[in-house]
C-alpha cells in the first residue's frame, strides 16, 4: 500500500537561473514535479512556480523522491525547443547519489534495458527481451567505511523513468533511502532518497550559448 502524499513545506522557490526564455529551480525531495491524479496531489513544483511565473511550462521531470535542478520554459515555443534538446540527448545531466556498498570497478557504464513493471507500477525493471535501451555512466567519488556506502557521480545518457535507481539496484548497490528498490535495511539508512540532480549543460534555445548550471548537494 502506497503512503499518502505529503508535500514538503513551501519555503519559497529556490531559483537558480532566470532569463526571458527559461527558469531553472531546485526541486526539494518529496515534491511531485507535476500534478498527480487526485485532489491530494495538486501541490507540486510546477504549481508552486506558476504562482509567481504563470506562463511556465514543464520540460522534463524528476522523481518525487529526487531533489535538484529542473528546467521550465517560459513559452510554448521554448518548451518545444527544449523538448527537442532532451529527445536528441543534447541536455547533459549529472547526479550525485549515495549507495550501499562499494561498486567495482569504480567507474564504468551500466547498459541494461528497462521497462515498466506493470503489475507493480510505478516500479520499473530490467527486461532483456522488450526493455528500452538504457545507459548510465558512473564514477565512485568517495567511500564511507563506517556506513559502508559510496558517493557516486551519475550521468544518465538515456532518460528512462527511475533509470538511475533501477540501474544501481541491478548493480547490487541500491541508493540509500530508496523506498521502491532498496531492501528495508538500505531504505532505513536515510530519511530521504539520496539522489540529487546537481548539474545541467545544454545550448541555450535562443542564443545557442552553452549554459552550465550547478546545484550544491544537500547531503
From TrEMBL:
The EC number(s) given in the record are 5.4.99.28, 5.4.99.29
Q: Which PROSITE patterns match?
A: PSI_RLU
Q: Which SUPFAM superfamilies match?
A: Pseudouridine synthase
Quickly give the catalysed reaction. uridine(746) in 23S rRNA = pseudouridine(746) in 23S rRNA; uridine(32) in tRNA = pseudouridine(32) in tRNA
Instruction: Reply yes or no: does the keyword Ribosomal protein apply.
Output: no
Q: Which GO terms describe its molecular function?
A: 23S rRNA pseudouridine(746) synthase activity; lyase activity; RNA binding; tRNA pseudouridine(32) synthase activity
Q: Which family does it belong to?
A: Belongs to the pseudouridine synthase RluA family.
This chain belongs to the protein called: Dual-specificity RNA pseudouridine synthase RluA
Amino acid at each position: 500500500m502506497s503512503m499518502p502524499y505529503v508535500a514538503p513545506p513551501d519555503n519559497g522557490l529556490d531559483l537558480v537561473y532566470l532569463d526571458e526564455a527559461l527558469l531553472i529551480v531546485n526541486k526539494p525531495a518529496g515534491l511531485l514535479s507535476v500534478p498527480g491524479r487526485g485532489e491530494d496531489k495538486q501541490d507540486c513544483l510546477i504549481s508552486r512556480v506558476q504562482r509567481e511565473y504563470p506562463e511556465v511550462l514543464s520540460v522534463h521531470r524528476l522523481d518525487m523522491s529526487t531533489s535538484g535542478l529542473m528546467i521550465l520554459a517560459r513559452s510554448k515555443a521554448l518548451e518545444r525547443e527544449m523538448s527537442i534538446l532532451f529527445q536528441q540527448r543534447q541536455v547533459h545531466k549529472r547526479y550525485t547519489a549515495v549507495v550501499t556498498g562499494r561498486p567495482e570497478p569504480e567507474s564504468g557504464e551500466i547498459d541494461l534495458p528497462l521497462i515498466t513493471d506493470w503489475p507493480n507500477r510505478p516500479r520499473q525493471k530490467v527486461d532483456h527481451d522488450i526493455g528500452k535501451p538504457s545507459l548510465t555512466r558512473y564514477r565512485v567519488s568517495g567511500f564511507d567505511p563506517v556506513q559502508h556506502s559510496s558517493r557516486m557521480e551519475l550521468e544518465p545518457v538515456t532518460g528512462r523513468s527511475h533509470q538511475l535507481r533501477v540501474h544501481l539496484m541491478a548493480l547490487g548497490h541500491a541508493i540509500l533511502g530508496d523506498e521502491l528498490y532498496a531492501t528495508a535495511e538500505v531504505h532505513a539508512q536515510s530519511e530521504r532518497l539520496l539522489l540529487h540532480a546537481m548539474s545541467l549543460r545544454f545550448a541555450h534555445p535562443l542564443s545557442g550559448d552553452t549554459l552550465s548550471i550547478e546545484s550544491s548537494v544537500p547531503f
